[in-house]
Amino acid sequence: MSKVKVAAFSISLDGFGAGPGQDLKNPLGVRGHELHSWLFPTETFQRMTGKSSGSVGVDNDFAAQSFENVGAWIIGRNMFGPIRGPWQDDSWKGWWGHNPPYHTPVFVLTHHPRADLTMEGGTTFHFVTDGPEAALARATEAANGKDIRIGGGVSVLRQYLALKLIDEMHLAVSPVLLGEGEHLFGGLDLPKLGYVHGKTAPGDGALHVAIRKM
Amino acid sequence: MSKVKVAAFSISLDGFGAGPGQDLKNPLGVRGHELHSWLFPTETFQRMTGKSSGSVGVDNDFAAQSFENVGAWIIGRNMFGPIRGPWQDDSWKGWWGHNPPYHTPVFVLTHHPRADLTMEGGTTFHFVTDGPEAALARATEAANGKDIRIGGGVSVLRQYLALKLIDEMHLAVSPVLLGEGEHLFGGLDLPKLGYVHGKTAPGDGALHVAIRKM
Known about the structure:
The structure is a homodimer.
Chain A: E1 4-12, E2 16-18, H1 43-48, H2 58-65, E3 70-76, H3 77-80, E4 105-109, E5 117-118, E6 124-128, H4 132-143, E7 147-152, H5 154-162, E8 168-174, E9 182-183, E10 195-202, E11 207-213
Parallel strand pairs in A: 1-7, 1-8, 3-4, 3-7, 4-6
Antiparallel strand pairs in A: 2-9, 5-6, 8-11, 10-11
């Protein structure tokens, strides 16, 4: 059964899922990279960046699981790039180079239409302008029985949480205070939306928290 | 050197330090007691409630440390009781019976004057109507070189955080989603106020987080 899941999504102790002021130099917002310091040393991440080894253990287990059985991704336009407003041209192809780490169809939520963009390694970006439910319908079809991973950013997660469309969420609570940025849960009443917490597991770099829909 | 500290203060995964709707039946707000499920089984807490034993380990270590070297407490009026507005009479003497678990002077922040209230076991409640800085000055004098513990609730912690008067804070992040209640950090920019995170330690029932002033 295909699941809609969030995995390996990092938040700070004060609840921010990204720093403020995203731009070309700060893809995750100012200080946003600190949220992911648990992820970077893991073998899973190191291998994605061409290294031969990295840390193993709880953090790596969650990093590895986050990529298992994913048949399609949904991401927001700001996770795809720093450009705002209409696409000026097709030169921006994401942060990730010619061979992005998705290797599946990726549905990018945007208000501005753009042609499909096929990359190396099996990643195709599809730009969806008719909203999160339409994106999920297309991603579900593309996933062909595998899971749909909602990648982020914060705004996209909040939309899917509010629509009660997320089945499982794995958060990594990082021991960092950001103070400002994009708050994941502010103004969302998760229990009222039908979400409950599951298991927690401490890693070397973060506390891993499971949340699921009842 | 006397420190101003917060210790064993529990928050939910979504950042709430108390549930909504505090009243006589819900001293910690609705579902607020779930925040403290890491604390209740500990030997420290069990002994405070007259039992002979309880759990030991990381959670109990933090519970025990929270009471060490405390010379005075500061708490908010809502932590003292459910009554709002002027004191009708002196019948309310706190939630804790004749022998409260403080055993020191306790300075209660309130807008409504009331005479000192001396309890068994060394606890005296002093009602302070001239604000958090005045309460801290009195508590510091009363503590006589020992630490001042800011007990809560959320509003009181937020006031002292905003005033940059807290030296150390130990939070217990409980694996619970409350969805509503009193949010500890909302609207406060901790790094901008000069606070940084310190060590984290996973316990069986909560993730223990240290925050301190730079």
